[in-house]
């Protein structure tokens, strides 16, 4: 998995306007990958400090999660792609990862237990051919939803996850700590 940070001119402009932000891109995780497709993790495994039944942090955060989903679907439809169906279980996995990043002060596709997005998703009991994950960390942003979606669309690796035609389902999780929002969106082609 390739992980790198990317700052484009438009992101720097957005950062000045909305507050500092960081984006992290990722590759895709394919079901045929040896070792990952045959995870021994059970559905009852927790994904951090909270179990997989983690509720939205607040009603305003829940609205932001819904806005990310809606805006991503608008972008897909502009490119002739069908909308992604919201998968509640994927949203719980995404929310838990965002909470972990906030609680443990890290920003990565790999959690403190050493699991990537595929392992976290499979630990929840879901199976997929392809799984992708986009992350965003927004610091002092007045519009973390708009900043996240636009930054992902401006980044080739993030954009690839969003516009991959095989992706059918998604989950969005946001966690706020102080003035920082951690945004996780998972994309999946289910088995």
- What percent strand? 15-25%
Q: What percent of residues adopt helix (DSSP H or I)?
A: 25-40%
Q: What is the first-to-last residue Cα distance? A: 21 Å
- Annotation field: number of helices: 6
Q: pLDDT under 50 segments (min length 5)?
A: 1-51
- For the secondary structure, the number of strands is 7
Structural class of the secondary elements? alpha+beta
Q: Output the helix-strand order.
A: EHEEHEHHEHHEE
What is the mean predicted local confidence, pLDDT? 79
Largest pleated sheet: 7 strands, mixed
> How much is the radius of gyration in Å?
15 Å
Would you mind describing this structure in some detail?
By secondary structure, the chain is an alpha+beta fold. Helices cover 38% and strands 23% of the residues. It is built from 6 helices and 7 strands; from the N terminus they run E-H-E-E-H-E-H-H-E-H-H-E-E. Helix 1 packs antiparallel against helix 5, helix 2 runs parallel beside helix 5 and helix 5 crosses helix 6. The radius of gyration is 15 Å and the shape is globular. The N terminus is likely disordered.
């Amino acid at each position: 998995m390739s992980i790198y940070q990317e700052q484009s001119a438009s992101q720097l402009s957005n950062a000045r306007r909305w507050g500092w932000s960081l984006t992290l891109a990722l590759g895709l995780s394919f079901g045929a990958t040896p070792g990952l497709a045959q995870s021994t993790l059970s559905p009852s495994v927790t994904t951090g400090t909270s179990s997989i039944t983690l509720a939205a942090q607040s009603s305003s955060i829940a609205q932001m999660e819904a806005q990310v989903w809606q805006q991503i679907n608008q972008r897909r439809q502009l490119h002739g792609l069908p909308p992604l169906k919201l998968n509640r279980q994927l949203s719980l996995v995404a929310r838990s990862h965002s909470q972990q990043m906030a609680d443990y002060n890290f920003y990565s596709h790999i959690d403190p237990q050493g699991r990537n997005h595929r392992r976290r998703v499979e630990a929840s009991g879901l199976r997929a051919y392809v799984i992708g994950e986009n992350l965003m960390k927004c610091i002092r942003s007045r519009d973390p939803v708009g900043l996240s979606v636009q930054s992902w669309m401006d980044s080739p690796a993030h954009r690839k996850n969003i516009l991959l035609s095989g992706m059918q389902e998604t989950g969005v999780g946001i966690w706020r700590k102080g003035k920082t929002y951690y945004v996780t969106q998972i994309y999946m082609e289910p088995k």
